[in-house]
Amino acid sequence: MGEESQFDAIVVGAGPAGLACAYLLAKAGKAVLVIERGDAPGAKNVTGGRIYAYALNLLDKDLLDDAAWERKVSHEEIMIIDGNRSITMDYHDPSLTEGDESLQSYTILRAVFDQWLADKAEEMGAMVVCGIRVDDLIQREGRVVGVIAGEDEMYAEIVIAADGVNSLMAQKAGLISDIKKETVGVGVKEVIELPAKTIEERFKLNQNQGSARMILGCTQGIHGGGFLYTNQESISLGCVFMPQEIVQHGKQVHDIFQELKMHPAVYPLIQDGETVEYSAHLVSEAGYRGMPAKLYKEGLLLVGDSAGLVINTGYSIRGMDLALLSGIAAARAILGESDLSQIGPAYLAELEKICLLPTMRLSVGYNQLLDIPRIYSNYPQLAIGVMQRLYKVDGQIPQNLKKQVMEAINESGLTVWQMLKDGLKGVRSI
Amino acid sequence: MSRIIACYKWVADEADLKINPDMSVDLSKAKGKISDYDKNAIEAAVQMAKITGDEAVTLTYGSKKAKLSLKDALSRGPSEGFWVNSEKAEQADGAASSKALAAAIDKIGDYKLIICAEGASDTFARQVGPSVAARLGIPCVSSAIKLELCENELKISRKLEDGIEIVAAQLPAVVCILPEINRPPIPGLKSVLDAGKKTTREYKIEELGLLESDLSARTETIDFKAYVMNRKNIVLDGETAADKVKALVGSLKKEGII
Ligand SMILES: Cc1cc2nc3c(=O)[nH]c(=O)nc-3n(C[C@H](O)[C@H](O)[C@H](O)COP(=O)(O)OP(=O)(O)OC[C@H]3O[C@@H](n4cnc5c(N)ncnc54)[C@H](O)[C@@H]3O)c2cc1C
After folding, report:
1. Partner-chain contact A132 B192, CB within 8 Å
2. Model confidence pLDDT, tens digit, residues A55-70
3. Residues A216-233: pLDDT tens digits?
4. Using an 8 Å Cβ cutoff, are A249 and A259 in contact?
5. Which of B135, B195, B218, B230 has the smallest number of Cβ neighbours within 10 A?
6. Which atom of ligand 1 is nearest to the CA of A132?
7. Residue nearest to atom 27 of ligand 1 (CA)
8. Between the CA of residue A256 and those of A169, A241, B73, what are the distances in Å?
9. Does the pLDDT value for residue A374 go beyond 90?
10. Which domains does chain A show, CATH number per domain?
């Protein structure tokens, strides 16, 4: 440690990214301080609800044993909504929940999970201080040497910006400018309490198993989608929207979300439940394109959401596992590189090695696909329209299938030409 | 240098209370916190110690849950934190709590001033301060909104229904403060970090010369239910704004509010 430094590392933000980094640094004997603005880790954090276990396994395989999970995901579901109609696809495979633990995924609640991970980091010797907001970085000659919180200054060899989407630390370091509205979505979410038995009955689940559902077509044509995750004794139901489209749409986010809750295929799932938590949060939507051009500055590394590390494929959101991975990569770089000025490049190398950057690059296609506005209204309408015709038996001579599909296409407002183009884009992008 | 002891209680955070449909109250998910007014008591002790050059310390009587409170209390400025640890505290009433606290204060020794809040934010029974004073055989002044030290006497402003009374008390004394006395600041980063380095002391009741049976409560909570306050739904008529105001004032007077 340098003369002035009170810590080897200061981590700003006790989310998965910051805590993973702090955990490993403390485990290696470094003096680490984690500063979190919430009154407790996870107090203010919002996520949909599913985390992939491989990332936690990579952090420390011992952690898998008593992680603060809700349910192990045994059912992967996609729901398509148009008006009051819906299609739900349910992929169930026993191997989703059997065998190698590290290949499975779990639903979680952040208030519980983040606190648990913070406790683990503290057990390793990290110091986690809550209820303190970091206001600024201390920079000298282009180098970050510490942080400012209120009237206090604190110095460290390296600062890890793990303060989430729209990172204030990254802004102060000049690595990102203020948020661009087309790169983030607004997520709203309710946690609805229900007895475990009721959840298991409604979703046809075994004990401790859960479903993860993405919902398409629930955003009234706005770029976005819904999600539903089953927890032990609650359901996390939410929606993500592109903010600028909401403004044009004229409807309130809250109202669209209420309509989703009241949808005839959704309401029976949450009926009689009690909403115990309502939250809203930004989610990075731009994938690789939305990442800052530089993920470090001398004395500072960006990890997790502050580095834009989120992949939204439309059928799943991955942010927490990537946050953990980047935290691990940052810790490896810090521990492996003794030359302070070389930690940044070493971090990038670790991000490549841990397959995070390659994965982000691959996500570009998905984002192009998800840019197609028709995905949020016309295609759901088409799918439902086809179903409606397939299952309608009215005693009349049935029309041939091709004609029925064409009718559904016309009704959905799509043209064959557009579909071909979108299809080609789809195939190219994935 | 003698001690100024701030007493506090670790209570369930009312923000986490859940009311069941049958009006019973679910405390199972409630996190703990230092009772709100006790934060004023701690701040008052810290401020007073700064002036007198004495040492501000904190004292709590609580179950093992209260261990979490020590760092929080110390991040507010006192130099040492004392904790009487007993599961009995979960069922304590004012008589039992004051017994435990008085015994601990005796043990800590060399005290000049004991500061309590007028009441705890969960029960607000207003028993502990006066009972502690009685057990220690020292004066007690309640409803304090200002403390001033003159020589070996404490000048205390008391907020009464219709005025401010200023009294002088011989030290050592117990003072029960009202929240108006100060605005406790939110601890900063350095204060929180420093708190981790300060000394904490845990007392078992035997060390205080007490028996389990000494700390049995003499009042018992039989039931704990939520209370619904119905709105009166009074609509005031009146031609002009002045009429309406008149009607409002009349109505408030009738209710005994003003
Ligand atoms: C609605 C929604 C649904 C999602 N669904 C999923 C999902 O199902 N699966 C998935 O893997 N990902 C999902 N994500 C993404 C995922 O939640 C994030 O990618 C992940 O939380 C990023 O972790 P992080 O540690 O980088 O940041 P965060 O979890 O945001 O943590 C940042 C922390 O920093 C603290 N902080 C911020 N500023 C300061 C400051 N100035 N001083 C001190 N502390 C500060 C915050 O309080 C917070 O605790 C979803 C996101 C949203 C919004």
Report:
1. yes
2. 999 999 999 888 999 9
3. 988 888 888 999 999 999
4. no
5. B230
6. 43
7. A164
8. 33, 10, 45
9. no
10. 7-70+105-179+287-363 (3.50.50.60), 182-284 (3.30.9.90), 377-429 (no CATH)
